[in-house]
Amino acid sequence: MALSRSGSKLLKPISPFFSSAPSILSRSISSSNDSITVETSIPFTAHNCEPPSRSVTTSAAELQSFFRDMALMRRMEIAADSLYKAKLIRGFCHLYDGQEAVAVGMEAAITRKDCIITAYRDHCTFLSRGGTLIEVFAELMGRRDGMSNGKGGSMHFYRKQGGFYGGHGIVGAQVPLGCGLAFAQKYSKDENVTFAMYGDDGMGTAEWRAAKSPAYYKRGDYVPGLKVDGMDAFAVKQACKFAKEHALKNGPIILEMDTYRYHGHSMSDPGSTYRTRDEISGVRQERDPIERIRKLLLAHEISTEAELKDIEKEVRKEVDNAIAKAKESEMPHPSELFTNVYVKGLGVEAYGADRKELRATLP
Amino acid sequence: MSAGQISVPIVFRGPNGAAAGVGAQHSQCYAAWFAACPGLKVLTPYSSEDARGLLKAAIRDPDPVVFLENELLYGESFPVSAEVLDSSFCLPIGKAKIEREGKDVTITAYSKMVGYALKAADILAKEGISAEVINLRSIRPLDRSTINASVRKTNRLVTVEESFPQHGVGAEICTSVVEESFGYLDAPVERIAGADVPMPYAANLERMAVPQVEDIVRAAKRTCHRSVPLAATA
């Protein structure tokens, strides 16, 4: 079956970048919920399906919320980097900065009844599913106000009420779990879908070494697929909306999000042994997801430069406050060692390192 | 299964057990899991001497060997003799090493816990208890004769391991001693192991979930019927 290219003959690409400078006094004339149409950066590449249109409907309100949410995520990850270097975060820490468009775009296309499951680069996805900054920072620092009461750490964030199933340390283990979630949704016929996310690899094993075919969106020709610019939140939103409709009607579909992480794989990977610093700064310059939204906000005269800078300052303060509060949170109580081992302990005993010294009945 | 026609001379090596703050999916010690399987050999080096001699033996061995290292030990240095550095140095599989001789209590350990047991032995020595520390080196085949000979000498046993207690290496050692050397025991056998819970991330809970030197000291004192003040939990 031929690859179909997004209909470049049908739609003339509209440049959203006006040449006039936005005036400080002008407000967007339309109300913030009036619809605006934006074009994705590039057309979608499809495999065995008809790609969605490049034109995405949005609104001033959505643009502003994209900007704020992504700025918050960016700030949070950068702050986590400092906390790790200050040894307040231990063990593993995998940062998501650069990839914010995927979390934010996906969230805009789905509901909290749809499920998301991912691997260990999960801080921002947790946030987008309704998690709070304090829950993130307290968890990263192993304190009792953390999302998992301090017992999980960076790789183990979950939010069942938000449809977020984690948060998994073992590479690839989340994929069959995602299938399971999807099957459950299919059996209960509730018209919801699951997004099972996974990466192309860990620390820079070249894709030609790790994958039989790096054209991931074709996925060895098992299911239809779509290649998406993962640095464009609107492309992500459109693709996820398309994928949900497709999955509900025709079954599984693969979305290849062409995204980019600025940090190394984890805090123990400098991220510069398998790529050049020029590549990283190049992406930051040309494809940064937050910058894309900033340009759209300015071009559509929804916000001014000053307002956007204020939002960034606000977001920075929010993050700093959350960190300060998280630092005040205490370490978990020793009795927490024995909680949540079983759903119901039913009188089972468990032991500490010295079984004659420390034993407890599981709650 | 092939009446000996086909053998599997492979070595699987890698880190095993807890590192620091890596949480529930990255902290388990699988020595007991692998050692339950007939046909497998399971080695657990502690020092550089162990690592060099045992790995060579593993590679030369015609059977499948699981070689369990420890991430935190990668950064530790050990003194080695000229003999160890010699290119022909090799250690036998299935033989434990007596790291420190003693006469009052036998402490068995493997991997990182050998270091902890040696520290515990130092503390016990100051209190007049002479501990014999056995570095198991080989979990399967387990050197039951060295362990039993030691307990027949000291009459007391403390087993130490990082992994979960139930059906663990310590459980097998205790059983072997009770089966072979029951008459020689002057005190119940003692097991120090990881806490019977998934490894928590928070630093204070993690410390409670892995054996500490004071746990080993306390258990050894119990076997010597010394009264032990109730230790505060972390």
User: Radius of gyration of chain A, rounded?
Assistant: 22 Å
DSSP strand count of chain A: 9
| Overall helicity of chain B | 25-40%
SS-derived structural category of chain A: alpha/beta
Helix content of chain A: 25-40%
What is the overall number of helices of chain A?
10
Secondary-structure element series of chain A:
EEEHHEHHHEHEHEHHHEE
How far is the N terminus from the C terminus of chain A? 58 Å
What characteristic shape of chain B results from the CA principal axes? globular
Give me the Rg of chain B, rounded: 18 Å
Give the helix tally of chain B: 8
- The SS-based structural class of chain B is alpha/beta
The low-pLDDT segments of chain A are 1-26
Oligomer: heterodimer
**Largest beta sheet of chain A: what is the strand line-up?**
2-6-7
Q: Please tell me what the overall shape of chain A is.
A: globular
EC number (chain B): 1.2.4.1
Protein name (chain B): Pyruvate dehydrogenase E1 component subunit beta
Pfam families (chain B): Transket_pyr, Transketolase_C
Catalytic activity (chain B): N(6)-[(R)-lipoyl]-L-lysyl-[protein] + pyruvate + H(+) = N(6)-[(R)-S(8)-acetyldihydrolipoyl]-L-lysyl-[protein] + CO2
Structural account:
The complex is a heterodimer of chains A (363) and B (234). Chain A is globular. Mean pLDDT of chain A is 89; it is low at 1-26. Chain A has helices at 60-85, 100-109, 123-128, 133-140, 174-188, 207-210, 233-250, 277-287, 289-299, 305-328, and strands spanning 35-39, 45-47, 55-59, 115-117, 194-196, 225-229, 254-258, 349-351, 359-361. In chain A, helix 1 (60-85) crosses helix 10 (305-328). In chain A, strands 2-6-7 form a three-stranded mixed beta sheet, with helices on one face. Chain A has 363 residues and is α/β, with parallel strands linked by helices. The longest helix of chain B is centred in the middle third of the chain and has 15 residues, at 112-126. Chain B is globular, with a radius of gyration of 18 Å. In chain B, the strands form two sheets. A five-stranded mixed beta sheet of chain B has the order 4-6-5-8-9, sandwiched between helices. Chain B has a four-stranded mixed beta sheet with strand order 1-3-2-7. Chain A binds chain B through residues 90-92, 142-144, 148, 150-153, 155-156, 168-170, 331-332, 334, 336-338, 341, 350-358, and chain B through 19-26, 165, 190-198, 200-205, 208-212, 215, 218-219, 222, 231, 233-234. Chain B: This is Pyruvate dehydrogenase E1 component subunit beta. Chain B: It comes from Stylosanthes scabra.
